[in-house]
Amino acid sequence: MNAPHPGILLVDDNPEQLAALEASLAPLGQRLVRALSGQEALKKILVEDFACILLAARMPGLDGRETALFIQALERTRHVPLLFLTEGEEVGAVDCVARPVEPHLLRARVRDLLESSRKMPTVRSPSRPGGEPVRDERHLEREWELLRCGRELEVSIANLCEREEHFRAVISALLEGIILHDDQGRVLLANQSAERLLGLSSLEMVGRAAQDPRWGSLHGDGRPCPAEELPALVALRTGRAVTGAELGVHQPNGRLVWLCVNAQPIFGPDGVTPTGVVVSLLDITERKQVEARLEASERQFRTLAEALPETVWMAEPPHGLIYVNGALPGLTGLAVDALLGMGFLSIIHPDHRARSLETWSRAMKEEAPLQVEHLVRGRDGSYRWHLVRGVPVRDDAGRVVKWVGLSADVHESRQAQQELQRRADFEQHLVGMVSHDLRNPLNAILLTTRSLLRRGGLDEGQTRGVERIQGSVERAIRMIRDLLDFTQARLGGGILLERQRVDMHEVVRGVLDEVEVAHPGREVRWVREGCGQGEWDADRIAQVMQNLVTNALKYSPEGTPVRVESRGVEEALVLSVHNEGQPIAPGQMERLFQPFQRATTEVDKAGRSVGLGLYIVKHLVDAHGGTLDVRSTCEEGTTFTVRVPRTGG
């Protein structure tokens, strides 16, 4: 029996589309064969010959493009014309038509394919002696499986090639150097970063063994690194990863590059035997250079510290001291190790230990400078005063990483200060006691002189003598009052006030009346405005004004007026005293309100003042919660301004 004449294979998963194709191609008088999938079409081409094949581009499973690849992979169907039926998409085929298509146009295209088929060499399907095609299903399945496996292998190889390209692209783009070694340590691959770090091209590195002495490797501490200690060979030998190893390598130009090296072994199918190793390289040259500079700076610091007689220390929270120079062991007789950490607490006097530790802890917590004084026990068991100061050291991010400081022996200076303080306290107590004891006899003399003057019966000479005695006693009483006020201000916690409701304008009037009697030849101009009511110590305010007005008269030329103002403002009263004398020198201005100071050295030659007036004025104004200002220039003269609030609250 003769084999059937080659027909037309119609491949589409849609039966309605197949029926439409059959109706369109029926006038051609050709044998039409249906296939509802790509797999079915492949089975049919293995047992039948076809003059041309029409393939739907879109089908589930094997689509038209994949089916065509298998068809063209077979020797005897390689030249069979194919016509793709598309929905408008690109399939990259030699011939295709977009659906829907007019039947007469489809027939014309198929006629051309049939004519082309007749010109192609024909490879027939295997047949039996009678011409009947062989239909060995096992043979067909094996051939189909071979085709499928071949196609999958082709796809797998393509995917592997694509992945290899991706891998090489990723490796090439890494900033880290990557080197792949085989199981003998020979270089198989190196990326561009490795070329840059090592100063060698891939061609120069590939095939070079890790043991090659040309690498010139160094350990992180600068010692030569033997081949057996190289991370790649250690990983190959032990089968364990090596991480964070520091290695120095000399480039061909002599430049030393420091690298952080990681080596990860690659295992064979047994999962035990390394077949290679991947090495990553990270440039840490700059970090090593910074560390070297820091180490040099540290050595310089320690050299300087050891040369100082004071104790130099460094501390890290919360561990305590991490360094002390030789001064403290020399002082205490203890070894350095015994003082490190919190061991230094043992040399602090027990009464001072808790306070010093509290100061230390607060400074650590607040990240603030440290200052404390305490007694430190020496090698002979005696205690001496030491002043400890420390400051925090911060890194680039502003974090405190340590404290550094000094501990200085201040025993002699502290004792000297205490002795000076004791002397000053004694002198002030003595002044207070003497002044107090002198006031009573002076008051008795003053009362006697006043009584003699009131009684009369004295001749002119006697009257002048009694008046001179009275004036001298009054000046002595004022000086004693100043000394008592000074003692109260310095030792008694401040001058006490007795506030009461008064009119400040009237207080000022009383002071000016007394001044005019004492200085009949001088002009004092007084300006008052606003309300003068408030709660003040009238005697103390009068003392302030008496001092300021008397000073203004004393330090201004004869014939020039002194101007006094008392002005009531909203919440306070302002008093000012102005004179036209020489300005106060800037150097004296700074000390003007200190005890035993005078505005100039040219006035008061009679020694009638001890230089406490302005000091006491300042304390009296402060006691009232007020302010005292002074302005002194050649053009404007000198003005003292007092501002006191109306109430003491």
Q: Outline of this structure?
A:
The chain has 649 residues and is an alpha+beta fold. Helix content is 43%, strand content 24%. About 2% of the residues have low confidence.
What does this molecule look like?
Residues 7-114 form the Response regulatory domain. Keywords: Kinase, Phosphoprotein, Transferase. One of its GO terms (cellular component) is plasma membrane. InterPro entries: CheY-like_superfamily, HATPase_C_sf, HATPase_dom, His_kinase_dom, HisK_dim/P_dom, HisK_dim/P_sf, PAC, PAS. The protein is of the alpha+beta class and 649 residues long. The chain folds into 5 domains: 7-135, 3-Layer(aba) Sandwich (Rossmann fold), CATH 3.40.50.2300; 174-289, Beta-Lactamase (2-Layer Sandwich); 308-409, Beta-Lactamase; 415-491, Signal transduction histidine kinase, dimerisation/phosphotransfer (DHp) domain (Helix Hairpins), CATH 1.10.287.130; 500-645, Histidine kinase-like ATPase, C-terminal domain (Heat Shock Protein 90, 2-Layer Sandwich). 43% of the residues lie in helices and 24% in strands. The longest helix is centred in the last third of the chain and has 45 residues, at 411-455. It is elongated, with a radius of gyration of 56 Å.
Uncertain runs = 127-136, 603-608
CATH C-level of the largest domain: Alpha Beta
- What's the arrangement of strands in the largest beta sheet? 7-6-11-10-9-8
Shape: elongated
**What is the tally of helical segments?**
18
Structural class computed from helices and strand pairing: alpha+beta
Sheet-strand content, in percent, reads 15-25%
Q: Would you identify the CATH architecture of the largest domain?
A: 2-Layer Sandwich
CATH topology of the largest domain: Heat Shock Protein 90
